[in-house]
Amino acid sequence: MGTLTPGRIQLYAPVDWFDLMADGGDREATRARCAELVRLTYPRTAAERREQFTDALVAWHDVLYADGVLMNGIVTAPLPSSGEQAAWLVFAGVVAVPESPSDLDLGELMTSVFAEHYGAAPAYTEAYATDMGMGFGFVAQPALPAAVAAGAAVEGAGGAGDGPVQVGLAGALATPVGGGLGLLVVGTSLNPLQAGELAGLVAVIAGRSVFVDEAPDAYGPTG
């Protein structure tokens, strides 16, 4: 695919959620952000235990940052449509795509990568227009190993046992018509039945975000 040229992207993303990557490579600011989240989430937990939770979040941040992830948003709120609790993780990063891709190229690319990773094609795919130019999205309900699903679990989620756990998965890839690079947004849900609603959020983030040639400091993170 080639090497990505450094640039900037203006991310269209919620401002009222917790984004683990909001402070980029500033570990001190990231730790303070994580510590506040842990304090609010577990107010009755011992300080030593909260410190361990914070250490884990910062370590996860470091892994994502080293992999070039620009955003890791966390949604834990009742859904307006049903009142059911959502437990979603949404990731975004810049990836290399073929030069001058067509809608079919994007579909084949996303579907083949998904099938290679999960052993089956996604349940639903769709090409759509984005502010960059073109995009492609998918929705799926794959079965993941219990240990992997547990990594996305939140306190209070039911035990999964040792067998595979079905989750909701939604992804969208947006790229300029000329191709070369694209924004990949992927969301996971502990409830596979929420995959469709999760797909709406993922599609909007990918669809409204844009690469910018010259970006003042007010713009989003570097890509």
Describe, in plain words, how this protein is organized in 3D.
The chain is an alpha+beta fold. The protein is 31% helix and 29% strand. The chain contains five helices and eleven strands, in the order E-E-H-H-E-E-H-E-E-E-H-E-E-E-H-E. The protein has helices spanning 27-41, 47-66, 103-118, 146-150, 195-208; strands at 8-10, 18-19, 69-75, 88-99, 124-128, 133-140, 143-144, 165-166, 168-176, 179-189, 210-212. The strands form three sheets. A seven-stranded antiparallel β-sheet has the order 2-3-4-10-9-6-5, sandwiched between helices. It has a two-stranded antiparallel sheet with strand order 1-11. A two-stranded antiparallel sheet has the order 7-8. Helix 1 crosses helix 2. It is globular and about 55 Å long. The two termini are 16 Å apart. Mean pLDDT is 84; it is low at 153-160 and 215-223.
